[in-house]
Amino acid sequence: MAASPSPSGSPPGTAGLAPASGGAPAFGRQVVRDRLVAGLLARPVGVIEAGAGYGKSVLARQYQRELGVATAFVPLGPPDDDPAILVGSLRRAFAASKLSDLAAATDVTDPAAAVERLLDALAQLDVPLLAVLDDAHHLRAPQVTGLVLRLARGLPAPHRLLVTARRLAAGLEPLRTLPAGGYLDTRALEFTGAEASALFSAYLERQPSSWELTVLLEATQGWATALVLAASSQLTVRGLATSADAGGRRTVAIAPLVDPIVALLPPPDRAAVSQLAHLPLLSAAVADAVGGGEGTLHRILAAGLPLTQAPTGWWEMPGPVAEYLASRNELAPETARSAAGVYQRGGELLAALRTLLAARLPPDAARMLAAAPVGEVEDVGWATLRDVAAELPLASVQNHPRVLLHLARLAETAHRADVRTEALARAERMIDAEAGRADQVFRREVDAERARDLMWDERTRDGARALAASVVASAGADEAAARARALDVLGRLASWFSADGIHAEAEALLLESARLARRIGQRTWEAQALVALAMGFYFALCRNDRALDTLDDVLAQLPARSVYRALVQNFRTDVLIELGRYAEAEASIEETREIGRAYHEEWAIAYASWSEAALASYSGDRERTVLAVLETEAHRDVWYEQASGVEFLVTAADYLDRVGEHEMALERLAMSQQRMAGCERPVRVFGACLLGRSGDPAAAADAMPRRSLTMTSSRRSAGRCCCSGPMRHTGAGIRGRASWPRMPLTCASNSASRTRRSGASGRWPRPCCRSRSRRARARRPRSSPGPARCRSPCSGASSSGGAARSPSSRPAAPPRLCARSPRRAAACTRRSSSSSSGRTQTLNVAATGCAIC
Fold this sequence. Notes:
The chain contains 41 helices and 12 strands. The chain is mainly α and 853 residues long. α9 packs parallel to α11, α23 packs antiparallel against α24 and α26 runs antiparallel to α27.
């Protein structure tokens, strides 16, 4: 992104509010209202309810300075009367204050869960924090007010909450009487004589007389904005007293005070002020774009018009002043377009869109949104984007259908398949309606998204491959988004989702997808591609160190407690278990669980226990395996309703059966079989493995699919569809018949047994399937007919429970699968040394017997 202009309107080297020579004093001299600050300090929850211009926001900042703690300042508006948007505003405030842990805690689709996770994160944060909800009178919906009440009532020490509003909605009225709360109303915020005198002294550099002070208080009724304007303007107290008889308090206070200040400005700046009053954010660049010249904001500040600078660096005009000045003219389309352009360049895409919509320019808003980079749109948030898109007329969306594509991509990361499906369907209908006139670049991006959706279901993967390949073949070099998404699909289909073994081209496909995603600033897509590369390719080919390095690279790019970090740690656990590095695997499991608990993320907690069950099962710890499986099931959530839930059930059946819990294993296997539509092959492979170990070997052979298989998974990160998980290509080094030529073996996955110490004997277990298979072939006479029998000592239950079967008790036929390695897919490749084509052939374990041991 190009460097954005600084929001600050101050000239270099100034404090930002220095008055121009001969001009009126600038608005910046404040009277610290100790009596009010002291009242707020006495309680952890503060509520300020007063009319516009009574100094609520200024008092909030004085309170913040007195506390001297980290502060998340949340300026609220009408759109925040939606639970999802309110949570998004909280998240942006935490991010702006560099409170990344709290921002990550609220990064979920369920607003109620976001508040609970925020409270949990605050309970673990020892450093005090102040959260300020400014202008909470915009919050009226029961769901929204309920969230604020929950936050106020559940706020843990030593943190503080401050809520300011012109008038609290009925749902927020309990805030006034909270036992831990302090309440200030309009009467409390009215300036006293002493405070008004101090304010005038700061501006006039003399004490006002008793008569002047009396006139001032009678005219303004202690209204802070009016007092400041009167003190900073050149209007005499006599003029103020005269105009007080002309009308109501608001008219008396604003018109005679603002008009003299505006009169000090040159004509172009006067016209600019009435337009700037319509805008939510001001800066030097915005003022110059609207005013048509340089130094506009500095002249406005020097004249004495009240502007305040927010913590973000943008300037704001107080509500009553903005309302009065905006009433002079409507927001001009040219003003909205100029300001929106500055907002977008400054990283405020949402403010730009809302400004255009306020000026009744939906075509411009749709055009800007459609042309926005993917990374910028992601920062807006899917719920806010949904609401913005809903405000766009049908014609604007039809002219700029990329709006729907943005919405579909963000909905995917939020697990909102319903929103994604509808958006993509609308986009496809628009493409079909255009027929030959449709934008082909847009068509390819939509096709890439469709291919991604088709990829998750094994019944539609052929269609996904064809569609993605078509996108790559026809997309230009500058179509980075379409190519990145389509290459990710092809890379996964050539590795994780391949039905005939790992293909060498998967590595290049996924690396190129990650590179393109990084080029367009889409870190989410990049991380997904690299995780697929690490687990679906390197790990599946026994290149464990390379897999671990790749995952560590992904972790290095993520915040310390990002939710996506939990998913990556989950995969890292699989690699560490395979390497026999149990202590490190335990640490990764614990970090995954810690992140899940800290942010109330059910899938992360469940995945930590899922990995713990794998570690315990392969270690022979029966009790821990059972407890870990039950703990995983205790955290069922959206992940369980997806294909990842089916994967969990079949892997849990394997873990339980291995330690002798055969009834529990069969129960979970039956549950997975009831839900296996779309992911049948993993269920059949695991079911065959379970039967081969603890049931009927003949039934196991019959249950094994006739096609060679590659295990797949649909574990998805919270809010992100990233196919991943422990179901991976696992090798089966084939011990061939005597007539087969001797060939080097290339495992289609991380093969044979995991290199770990046996929990019972302390011996190092069997090495990788490649070396084991070669040694087995060397020991076997060449004339040995038929496939070799599995001689694994772990083919039955572990020593901790269950009946182990001795190798001699097994029937000679049909052959059995290795009971230790059911997580390995029943696919292995062998490369013929005599083949000039180098083509990889896939052999069916079900037809050749156990080739792992």
